[in-house]
Amino acid sequence: MNGARRAPLSSRSLHSSPVHMASSIVLFGPPGAGKGTQAGNIVEMTGKPQVSTGDMLRAALAAGTSLGVEAKGFMEAGQLVPDSIIIGLIEERLKEADAENGVLFDGFPRTIAQAEALSQIAEVSVVIAIEVPDGRIVERICGRYTCGACAAVYHDTFNPTANPGVCDQCGHAEMKRRADDNEDTVRTRLSAYHTQTAPLADWYRQRDIFVAVNGDQDIAKVGSEIAAVL
Ligand SMILES: [Zn+2]
């Protein structure tokens, strides 16, 4: 976000009504940490809708809203959509009826500048980070394979086929592994995640709303740790 765009953003935010300040949740988690499952649980528990900036952007482009048209210009020029537009989309989303009691932010913010801008338009009451050691993520992701015929999902360690290489479900004997499920690719993605998240975690820690949850345990236990936080 550049200075020129920041000024109108904060002056506009001053006029936000208290309705938009209902408490929201931010969820962080590395790839393979089960963030999607836990996001679903949080939505169910709190009734707060899950908000993804990617989805909002796609919807705005499809609907041709003024922010959508503005965003399209940047995308067609091969540029990143500026934070001011993303924040504008969030601000509009927060005015919708289902966001009355706040939302669950997934995949946002990604930078401190975004966290600062978000703090102007939404009250974030808690930031939950699902933490799983990198080695465990590598083990989870790299062990996955699926049946080439029926797409049944297996895992080398946690859920192997009864007969090696033969699908339990349909008997097909050809298993597939995704090319990007290899250790180097996963470790690269994880280090990008840590680089991006660490400063944000510190930023939220300073504001006493950061909570780390142990994601290296049974899905239901992760869910109850999160429920305890909420
Ligand atoms: Zn199969």
Describe it for me?
The protein has 230 residues and is α/β, with parallel strands linked by helices. It has 9 helices and 8 strands. The strands form 2 sheets. It has a 5-stranded parallel β-sheet with strand order 2-3-1-4-8, sandwiched between helices. The chain has a domain at 3-10 and 22-132 and 187-225: Rossmann fold, CATH 3.40.50. The protein has helices spanning 3-13, 35-46, 53-63, 66-76, 83-94, 112-121, 134-142, 183-206, 219-229, and strands at 23-28, 50-52, 104-106, 123-131, 144-147, 153-155, 175-176, 210-214. It starts with a helix and ends with a helix. The protein is 48% helix and 15% strand. Zinc ion (ZN) binds at residues 147, 149-150, 152, 167, 169-170, 172.
Key features?
230 residues, alpha/beta, Rossmann fold, five-stranded parallel sheet, three-stranded antiparallel sheet, 9 helices, globular, disordered N terminus, binds zinc ion
Number of strands: 8
- What is the level 1 CATH name of the domain at 3-10 and 22-132 and 187-225? Alpha Beta
Averaging pLDDT over every residue, what do you get?
89
Spans with pLDDT under 50 lasting ≥5 residues? 1-20
Give the helix/strand class: alpha/beta
Q: How do the helices and strands follow one another from N- to C-terminus?
A: HEHEHHHEHEHEEEHEH
CATH architecture of the domain at 3-10 and 22-132 and 187-225: 3-Layer(aba) Sandwich
Strand percentage lies at: 15-25%
What gyration radius follows from the Cα positions, in whole Å? 20 Å
Bound molecules: zinc ion
Instruction: Say what the CATH topology of the domain at 3-10 and 22-132 and 187-225 is.
Output: Rossmann fold
Helical segment count? 9
Shape: globular
Write out the strand line-up for the largest beta sheet, numbering strands in chain order.
2-3-1-4-8
CATH superfamily of the domain at 3-10 and 22-132 and 187-225: P-loop containing nucleotide triphosphate hydrolases
Biggest sheet statistics: 5 strands, parallel
How far apart the termini lie comes to 32 Å
- Helical residues, percent: 40-55%
